[in-house]
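Here is a typical protein record:
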Amino acid sequence: RSDRNRLHIHSISSFPDAPAVTLPFKLPKTTTLPLAITLPPRSTSPMFSLDEKIKFYLCQQPVSMRYGIRGLTNKVLSWPGFSPMSGSAFIFFSADRRQVKILRWDCDGFLLYQKKLAKGSFRNLVYKGSDGCLQASYEEIYFLMRGLSPVTMKADSRFRYDNSGI
């Protein structure tokens, strides 16, 4: 056998003494292999973020918090005109409104955020007697998650852990 028919790949890692790898088959002449992987430029928003560029939809009915990604995705698919892979954030509350789950598609997979309050409950933004979901602004969601009332700017009674002494 001739070495001419084999492709040699040399290591470009931080280990200069690493041996070359020889593939035991021939590749077509038009095949090119990447020598290095570069990351895309750093964006201004952090990974896995919820920001004002995202559309937010509130589920009108309470949802069992036992649902995971698959169950919540099926819930979104049951609403006409909505796709869980649209990049929008879909917000689901428990019956007692002490827990929330947020489902969002992030380019190549689903993200599932969950928050459980130690004290108090989330304010009710949903309208009675309506099915499906309701669109909400980033500011409304921010106030809701922080326990703030946008009308009076009064904080709801919630457990606050003071970590300033750490």
User: Anything to note?
Assistant: The beta strands are 7-9, 21-23, 56-59, 89-93, 99-105, 110-116, 133-136. Residues 5-15 have pLDDT under 50 and may be disordered.
